[in-house]
């Protein structure tokens, strides 16, 4: 069932920095109407720029995953990668 969102609800969301497009995307991904209209947007850092600065032989994917998990940029770019077992 598709929920109807009123103009006032869209305007209230936009005051919180949530665009109509973002609300629609969230609903398509199965979010509840209330959550789609009220949950703050996530802020993204520019992980690629941080990774380029580290350039210690750590792959971008590894660096990015470490940053996602909360590791600070210096450690994520310098901690040796564990060897995979055969």
What is this structure's SSE topology?
Layout: H1 7-15, H2 20-28, H3 33-38, H4 47-54, H5 60-68, H6 73-78
As a percent range, the share of helical residues equals: 40-55%
Structural class: mainly alpha
Rounded mean pLDDT score:
82
Low-confidence runs: none
**Total beta-strand segments:** 0
Number of domains: 2
Give the helices and strands as they follow along the chain: HHHHHH
Q: What share of residues are in beta strands?
A: under 5%
Largest sheet: none
Q: Shape from CA axes?
A: elongated
The end-to-end span amounts to 49 Å
Description of the molecule:
By secondary structure, the protein is mainly α. It folds into two domains: 7-38, no CATH class; 47-78, no CATH class. It is built from six helices and no strands. The chain has helices at 7-15, 20-28, 33-38, 47-54, 60-68, 73-78. The longest helix has 9 residues, at 7-15. The termini are far apart. The mean pLDDT is 82.
Quick synopsis:
This protein is an all-alpha fold.
Q: What keyword list fits this structure?
A:
86 residues; 2 domains; 6 helices; elongated
């Amino acid at each position: 069932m598709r929920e109807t969102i009123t103009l006032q609800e869209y305007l209230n969301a936009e005051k919180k920095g949530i665009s109509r497009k973002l609300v629609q995307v969230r609903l398509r991904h199965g979010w509840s109407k209330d959550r789609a209209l009220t949950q703050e947007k996530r802020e993204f850092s520019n992980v690629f720029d941080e990774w380029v600065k580290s350039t210690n032989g750590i792959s971008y994917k590894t660096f990015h995953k470490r940053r996602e998990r909360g590791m600070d940029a210096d450690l994520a770019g310098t901690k040796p990668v564990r060897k995979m077992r055969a």
